[in-house]
Specification:
Blueprint lengths: L3 E5 L6 H9 L17 E7 L2 E7 L10 H16 L2 E7 L6 H13 L2 E7 L22 E2 L8 H10 L14 E6 L6 H9 L17 E7 L2 E7 L12 H16 L2 E7 L6 H12 L3 E7 L10 H12 L8 E3 L8 H15 L5 H14 L4 E2 L2 E2 L2 E8 L4 E6 L7 H15 L7 E6 L3
Parallel strand pairs: 1-3, 1-4, 4-5, 5-6, 7-9, 7-10, 10-11, 11-12, 16-17
Antiparallel strand pairs: 2-3, 8-9, 13-14, 15-16
Helix pairs in contact: 10-11
Length: 437
């Protein structure tokens, strides 16, 4: 387990900006509006060869009756429970507020290591206003300007001093990363909550509730996973807020970071053009893909319902016929265990490597069963093939003339390799080279 550092504070004190500066890239949404960072955001960070997990949280408003704001408070409380070190961020120029005092009370009750961070101090000289923050009871405030990158080295030095000695600060190997993708309100967050058995992400029937990509680590049957829950991707004409634009970019980033993408489809709506577009993102980036049809418990079924729905998916998503389809209900938990089993199987395909000798036996057999095409008396010759990569599996096949290679024969060779080696759920990449290339 790596140490966990959590950033908390009231809205608009610069928590997300500080988060982005520490992890070194723009992950959290930074916009001067309360409630923009709605869910916890996880990222890996490093300072002087000390690796840790950094969590950004939404701004805490203890006195609000708003449903979303109250859930933000709950999310922050869960993050505090998870953390080894807490960064309590305040506005160094704005002075102490009643909300700051209430958050300080919550943190004192947690019993965790707390560093008080006075942000937005853009000058080398410490202003007198800083000293009133001693009243909060967390010792000497650490003065920084996240926007100007001032004081961050001193802050990070203090953070790593607080790490517990029994925590491993190195990276973990072999974690299966699965991004949960799909349109808004199809049940992505509900699926994660069902797997975890806790309300780790905000669940609401309002489309667009999950705006940030949330990394959720868990273990299942001895294997380590990270679920990356993403904001739903809307049609372009539906995107009006800057925040929603960030969410589309984040979905693409989440797919990029993952090994396997799980496309969640609403069974009550059916497969749509937008689902095809989202699946295309994962396919183009060479990621493993699973199609999870959610809300299956709400469908009236007959003997033909399952087959007709599956046929419709395969017709609409004809470019990803390798993707397994599983019908689930995140609400009741129906076949969620099956989905987890398929994630492991797809990951095994995604990382599978075949020896050159066995691969060429299959290629030679395929050539005998179906002779390569000819053109003007010249026939395509296949000399040999070799696998050169995984994640996704990539093959190089040497031939005599690229101009003789038809797309249909390339697809035939791919189908023969899939038939013999499985490769369910993963795209395969082929590069054909002439001898001497």
């Amino acid at each position: 387990m790596r140490p966990v550092v959590c950033i908390v504070g009231r809205p608009n004190v610069g928590k997300s900006t500080l988060f982005n500066k520490i992890v070194g890239r723009r992950i959290a949404i930074t916009e001067d509006r309360p409630g923009v960072t709605r869910d916890r955001i996880y990222a890996e960070a490093e300072w002087l060869n000390n690796y840790f997990i950094l969590i950004d949280t939404g701004g805490i408003e203890p006195y609000s009756d708003d449903i979303i704001l109250s859930q933000i408070k709950r999310q922050a409380e869960i993050a505090i429970d998870t953390a080894d070190v807490i960064l309590f961020v305040v506005d160094g120029l704005g002075g102490i507020t009643s909300t700051d005092r209430e958050i300080a009370n919550i943190l004192r009750k947690s019993g965790k290591e707390v560093l008080l961070v006075c942000n937005k101090i853009d000058t080398p000289k410490t202003p007198d206003e800083i000293y009133e923050f001693y009243e909060l009871g967390f010792g000497e405030p650490i003065v920084v300007s996240a926007g100007q990158s001032l004081g961050l080295g001193d802050l990070l030095d203090e953070i790593i001093k607080k790490f517990p000695e029994n925590k491993d600060t190195d990276y973990e190997e072999g974690v299966i990363k699965a991004s949960i993708i799909g349109k808004p309100n199809v049940g992505k967050s509900s699926l994660i909550n069902n797997v975890l058995g806790e309300n780790r992400v905000i669940v609401s029937n309002v489309p667009g509730t999950t705006r940030d990509a949330v990394d959720t680590p868990f273990t299942y049957k001895g294997d380590k996973y990270v679920f990356i829950d993403t904001a739903g991707v809307r049609r372009k004409r539906s995107i009006s807020e800057n925040i929603e634009r960030y969410s589309v970019i984040r979905t693409l980033t989440a797919i990029e970071r993952s090994d396997v993408s799980i496309l969640v489809i609403d069974a009550t709506v059916g497969v749509t053009e937008q689902d095809a577009k989202i699946a295309g993102y994962a396919h183009e980036r060479g990621k493993g893909l699973i199609i999870a049809v959610n809300k299956w418990d709400l469908i009236e079924k007959s003997n033909k319902t399952y087959r007709e729905f599956e046929k419709n998916i395969k017709n609409t998503l004809s470019f990803v016929t390798y993707a397994p389809i599983v019908f689930i209900s995140a609400k009741t938990g129906k076949r969620v265990d099956k989905l987890l089993q398929i994630i492991k199987e797809v990951y095994n395909s995604y990382t599978k490597r075949i020896s050159t000798g066995v691969l060429n036996d299959i290629i030679n057999e395929a050539v005998l069963l179906n002779q390569p095409p000819t053109d003007k008396g010249r026939r395509l010759k296949i000399y040999y093939g070799t696998q050169v990569g995984v994640m996704p599996p990539k093959f190089v096949i040497f031939i005599n003339d690229k101009e003789l290679l038809h797309f249909s024969y390339e697809r035939y060779l791919e189908n023969q390799i899939r038939l013999n080696f499985g490769y369910e759920g993963t795209p395969l990449q082929f590069e054909f080279k002439e001898k001497g290339d």
